[in-house]
Specification:
Layout (H helix, E strand, L loop, with lengths): L9 H23 L3 H12 L22 H5 L6 H18 L3 H6 E5 L3 E7 L16 H14 L5 E8 L13 H18 L7 E6 L18 E8 L19
Parallel strand pairs: 3-4
Antiparallel strand pairs: 1-2, 2-5, 3-5
Helix pairs in contact: 4-6, 6-7
Length: 254
């Protein structure tokens, strides 16, 4: 009795090898056809998936003025990949909503730090956040902080710290109401606006007024860019709120 030997599976292995080889060839050809910037971005994404997307960026979005060192970025090793992805997502959302044009880009600066995401919102003379020498928000300031709140409220994994700042030589209403009071009250006004539009009270861990003691790097202490509110988003360590809510903002611009 003759035994039949079946070799039907060999062609499947050969075919799989052929498909894999063709796919690898396709990827190589595609990569060689790209420009230098795309090649560099792909190389960086494979080396460190959670590093900056561009050469000029220290974190998630381009930031031509920022200088980052390996030591500063090293502290991000402790958060989980999920937390870093959430941080990436909230940064992208804020960037899309708040930096639509050149004027908005000069108002809001997003910067990655070893602590989390720092958002500097500038009270410039061209696009003021507050009425002059007061704590009353302008329509534009109200729109900026309301928009920030809608995004921040979706990500309960972050805690919020607020700081008010002024430039040196800022006018004061009198000896009992100096830059210290003004910067503190503006930070509190920001807190109330954020809470009004969805940020949880328990998310806010600090509200402080620093007057002119922390000027921006590289500019004179008297420059108006020091007149700002800083919002710092820090990753929670208690594991609360790892998923964004389904809430979608519908905001109109002033």
């Amino acid at each position: 009795m003759k035994h039949k030997h079946h070799h039907g599976g060999a062609w499947k292995v050969a075919y799989a090898d052929f498909i894999t080889t063709m796919m690898a060839l396709f990827l190589v050809l595609w990569l060689t056809a790209q420009d230098t910037k795309i090649k560099e971005a792909i190389e960086r994404s494979f080396k460190n998936p959670f590093s900056s997307l561009t050469k000029e960026s220290v974190g998630i979005i381009p930031n031509n003025d920022a200088q980052a060192t390996h030591k500063e970025r090293g502290n991000f090793d402790s958060p989980s990949a999920v937390q870093l992805e959430l941080l990436r997502r909230v940064t992208e959302d804020l960037s899309k909503l708040l930096q639509n044009n050149e004027e908005d880009q000069s108002t809001v600066k997003l910067e990655m730090t070893p602590e989390g995401l720092r958002i500097n919102v500038f009270d410039g003379s061209n696009r003021p956040l507050f009425e002059p020498e007061t704590t009353q928000l302008t329509p534009y300031g109200s729109w900026v902080f309301s928009t920030m709140a809608w995004v921040m409220a979706r990500y309960q994994t972050f805690v919020v710290e607020l700081e008010g700042h002024t430039e040196s030589g800022a006018k004061s209403r009198g000896p009992d109401y100096t830059a210290w009071e003004l910067s503190s009250d503006r930070a509190n006004t920001t807190r109330r606006k954020l809470v009004e539009h969805g940020v949880g009270e328990k998310q806010i861990f600090k509200v402080a007024g620093l007057a002119d003691t922390h000027p921006m790097t590289g500019v004179p202490s008297t420059h108006e860019s020091n007149r700002r509110v800083t919002v710092l988003l820090k990753i929670r360590t208690d594991g609360v709120g790892n998923k964004p809510s389904a809430r979608t903002p519908i905001l109109s611009r002033p």
